[in-house]
Amino acid sequence: MLDPKQFINIDSYNSYEKDFIVVGTGIAGLRAALEIAKTEKVTIITKSKIIETNTNYAQGGIAVVLAKEDNFELHIEDTLYAGDGMCDKNSVEILVKEGPERIRELIDLDIKFDRTDDGNLSMTKEAAHSKNRILHAGDTTGAEIERVLMEAVLKNENIEIKEYNFIVDFLGEHSILAYDTVEKNYSVINFKGIILATGSIGAVYENTSNPKIATGDGIALAYRAGAVLSDMEFVQFHPTTFYKENTPRFLISESLRGEGGILRNKYNEKFMNRYHNKSELAPRDIVSRSILSEMDMTESKCVYLDMTHLDKEYLYKRFPNITAFCKDYGIDISKNYIPVSPAAHYMMGGISVDIDGKTSIEHIYAAGEVSRTGVHGANRLASNSLLEGLVFGKRAAETAVFESKDIVIKKNKNKFNTVKKPYICYNDLNKLITEFKSIMWEKVGILRDEQGLKEALNKIELIIHKIMNYKFSGETIVDGLEFINMLTVGYIIIEASLKRKESRGAHYRLDYPQKNIEKKIYYSFSKNID
Ligand SMILES: Cc1cc2nc3c(=O)[nH]c(=O)nc-3n(C[C@H](O)[C@H](O)[C@H](O)COP(=O)(O)OP(=O)(O)OC[C@H]3O[C@@H](n4cnc5c(N)ncnc54)[C@H](O)[C@@H]3O)c2cc1C
Fold first, then answer.
1. Confidence check on the interface: ipTM exceeds 0.90, yes or no
2. Catalytic residue numbers?
């Protein structure tokens, strides 16, 4: 197992005692902190600036049962169906039934969801939802959620925020090591309870809709601490990200298809009706594989999303962010097709938690995308993840306070050994990172098979072998430590994908294209039981 402390020199460090720590400033972390702060002091730590989160990039919206024609049973049914038999029904029921109350709290914080002309909340539909239940704020819903939660957090006297602090590792049960990326120093923080809300893993793939921060740190941290991880083979690939060679991907939200967008191949042919009876609104894994198949058949690097038949004024108003982004690339979405292709988007698995956010390790809790609550199963229903962050962020916080508030914080004496190794230079590190991400994309992506997965494992072992010879310093510390986490996460995704010898939800095996309907198996990993 890769130990990040073997890659850095810790000559000195500061030491702090904090009651409760929340790592992450996305929807799950901010919601959890607000709950803890009702009675306790809490410190929120993020490795970047507050708003640099996946939450802030979320576009389409947040699913919730509020419409008269909708009901809990339908949302539960849709979620279970998308999860392809792998959801925990109890968690799904909690998600759906507690959702409306969590949304009303956001409305009380004066969130500006879009409304209809008569002042009611405007709701749209996305793939595999049977009713219109997606609340949205233009096509920047995540940024609006982040704004209201951040404002509430900044006003709260029980909450302290530490930006630009990278959590490196756990040091025993109630202690973590942090690296201040501005001051360039280390600190050991002792605490009563900690909630990991560190988000996604998208950055382990060459092509992703996720921002750079999504390096799976929380999953790797928890794994090294001995926590159980589950469902790590279930990575969701979003069918439509903006495609332009040598340009980072940008999400073209599913709500464009929800509003009537049509996918066309390079010969201008509609094709989704050949793959699924719900056409453009088929589940994401099916749309992604259909797009790959069309790209393959037409020897093309992308397909196209056609919005040109829709009302121009409505399009501009409903999707201002996507309109502006495309315009920067010379595309008027009311006149031109948008070039799109799939990219890694969301991790359904993660740190195993129960319905109260408890991991398998006492006083370590997890919420949001880093956790595996069982609400997404093998495939997440669109717009359920923001809701998960709210519902389970609150629950994890309540549990952390209940279980940890009487803990007496002990100051540990930490001794860090210095390993003598040369420092890697930035370019060499970057080359290894690029090679790793490309292996993950080519061999552990939308279509998998045993040969490719084993090749990936061998190649990643070689990369691990190389990186073990070096240390990080200065400008390579954060990228290097994130890389150690990405290698750990990538390795586990491959192992889980090898184990699942069937195709289910987002996990598709070319060599096992059928679902094993007789046996439903969950794969879990822990350094203590491997
Ligand atoms: C482009 C895009 C569009 C999306 N659209 C939607 C949508 O419309 N609806 C929906 O429901 N979902 C959507 N999703 C998914 C959803 O945004 C995420 O699942 C959700 O926001 C995750 O929230 P979170 O709080 O768990 O993590 P995040 O919001 O990602 O926050 C993670 C936090 O952890 C911090 N962190 C990570 N590692 C460390 C470390 N080592 N030390 C310190 N801090 C650390 C980060 O800096 C960050 O503050 C979208 C995702 C993307 C990328």
1. yes
2. 284
